Amino acid sequence: MGDSADVAGTAAPATHAAADAATDGRSRRRLRNVEAVADAVLDLLNEGVVQPTAQEVSDRSGVSMRSIFRLFQDVEALHAAAIERQFARVSPLLGTLPTEGPVAERIEALADDRARFFDAVAPVRRLAVRRAQQSPLIEGELARSARYFRDQLAAVFAAELAGAADPLLLDALDAATSWEAWDRLRRAQQLTTAEARRLMVATVSALLSCAGTTRPARPSKKKQKER
User: Fold this and answer.
1) Around Cβ 120, how many Cβ atoms within 10 Å?
2) Residue 164: phi, psi to the nearest 5?
3) Measured in whole angstroms, how far is the alpha carbon of residue 66 from the centre of its chain?
4) Distance between CA atoms of 86 and 39, rounded to whole angstroms?
């Protein structure tokens, strides 16, 4: 009896451990498949496939179509996975921008940051814009992104905004440096990245110069030389 009791006492934990290991293995496998499918969608979009099909995603990811439909309960679940993977990919592209120092240098840093980021996310962003009306998740993510970039402007140009006579200056800056403005320059007007970036710098500079301040601004050294 004693031996039987010992066996029973040790077998139960071993059985639980095996079950836990099997569960962990399935969870890891499922996570790998979810990430593979999300990566496949993003890669296809970045390669110019405007609307990836389930078959194309399956072929690229190596995950069967049957498994794909099991992994994602609905399209929103796939959107959520793709958004998470896209964030992991592109968030390192967003640098920390200066909030002090010469305004010209801050404008240049902002233009560099947005040009790099907007070009990198363009294919995925365009699909997101098209899908936003049918997807609350995507619509919310686009709104969150818009708030981030607006808050970034408020921080980078805090001194100029505080002294501006025009209360709409932040709105103007937000519109001029937005994804929508960038996409128009790059697609509708067919400007190169360098040309679109230069136009962003010129537009922001003009807005800050023309907005007016509550106290006279000292002319830059460059303007003093020009005089």
Assistant:
1) 14
2) -80, 140
3) 30
4) 8
Residues 6+ apart with CB under 8 A from 200: 110, 111, 114, 115, 176, 177, 181, 182, 185
What are the φ/ψ torsions at residue 213 (nearest 5 degrees)?
Answer: -130, 165
Answer whether 0.85 is exceeded by the pTM. Answer: no
- If you average pLDDT over residues 164-178, what whole number do you get? 95
Residues 83-99 have pLDDT tens digits of 889 888 888 888 899 99
CA dist 210 and 53 (Å) reads 49
How confident is the model at residue 217, as a pLDDT? 40
Q: DSSP characters for the chain? A: -HHHHHHHHHHHHHHHHHHHHHHHHHHHHHHHHHHHHHHHHHHHHHTT-SS--HHHHHHHH---HHHHHHH-SSHHHHHHHHHHHHHHHHGGG-PPPPSSS-HHHHHHHHHHHHHHHHHHHHHHHHHHHHHGGG-HHHHHHHHHHHHHHHHHHHHHTHHHHHTBS-TTHHHHHHHHTSHHHHHIIIIIS---HHHHHHHHHHHHHHHHHHS-BSSPPPPPHHHHHH-
Residue 96: per-residue pLDDT: 92
Q: What DSSP assignment string belongs to 145-170?
A: HHHHHHHHHHHHTHHHHHTBS-TTHH
* CA distance between the termini of the chain: 105
User: 204 is written with which tokens?
Assistant: 């922001």
What is the Cα–Cα distance from 73 to 27, expressed in whole angstroms?
16
